[in-house]
Amino acid sequence: MLQCQEFVNDCKFQGTSITPFECCNMFFQPLIGTQNGGLCWLFNHNNTISQSALDLSKGLELVFSIAHNSFSNFLHKHPGIDVYLVDGNLEALRLATESFDSITLKDKQGVRLRMHKEYETDLRRFECGATSSSAKAVDSKGVNSQGSAYVLCLLQTILRVCECLPLFVSYIQYNTHIYSVLQYEQCAKSYMEYVKPIHWNEELSSRLGVTFRQNVDNCRRNFRPCQKTLFHGPIDYYDLPVELTQNTQDFITKLTVVYESLMVTDTIRTRSPSFYELLSYIGYNIALWFAIGHIIWSIIITPCNWFCQSNSKVGPTNLSISTVKNPSPVVTLGNPNRQQLAPIDANTSSQELFPEQI
């Protein structure tokens, strides 16, 4: 197994050169196993260095060199080095099972990644909440209390059912014996597929068998991260200068990683609501806004009613009778030829009430 200083030929950050010895001691951590079957060196700066300018010359530059004699007995040509950009704060088990989408460094070629940071939030599970911040809080609480409970549950299931464990588990201090290729293909392979994050929420096929589906469903009740950190950006491939590659059969490659933007994006995955959930959501919003409108109307109309009622009350009034001084005479107009009727009293006869017509 190669040591760090045997393949790190040059190290540079923000234009300042660092010797391979210092680079390995400061930034590289011991090997960990991966689900892909390989071994990884971890380059973790532990927040001791940071990029201060958006310039290609201000990023991290690593030149890797592997002697031809170290692989020529097994390989005619070196297959290259895979680089995974992941969150450095992840625990070893998550690094081993969640490292995908690698960048492959080929011999006599350089790779330049101009990246930006992105959060991918999965809100398809109810326990992750409804926002990116709530998912981050759930992860923070879950990692501190349960860690990689889902992956550990699957590994324990593999150990119980298949009586073996994958190779990378031996590098994370999990004492057990490793499976053979036959055991892997016949038993463990199906379970290991659901260790990958892309299959965490995938519906289980009926062809997998009742026992298998029950085992995976039981493990899915454990904590699974709601948010992960990604580093995306355009990748430039180029040939290394002739002065580095001429007259040598050694494997030589160069990696440059630099932030193209300091903006952080957040991609949120949400579940598609069912018809019942959609109706419930519409009904909830109608009831909510009706209640809010009613409360606002009550707040506005109640003081008005109080004010209007206080102004419309009629109190007792004093009636007075005034006399008219020097009243003007009242003139009565009548027909002088019309007979004047006598006053009506109890002794008045009908002839007097209805006199003959003239």
From TrEMBL:
Membrane-spanning intervals of the chain: 278-300
Record flagged with keyword Methyltransferase: no
Any one cellular-component term (Gene Ontology): membrane
Compartment annotation: Membrane
UniProt entry keywords in alphabetical sequence: Glycoprotein, Ion channel, Ion transport, Membrane, Sodium, Sodium channel, Sodium transport, Transmembrane, Transmembrane helix, Transport
An annotated Gene Ontology molecular function: sodium channel activity
Domain of life: Eukaryota
Similarity section: Belongs to the amiloride-sensitive sodium channel (TC 1.A.6) family.
Protein name, as recorded: Uncharacterized protein
Source species taxonomy: Eukaryota, Metazoa, Ecdysozoa, Nematoda, Chromadorea
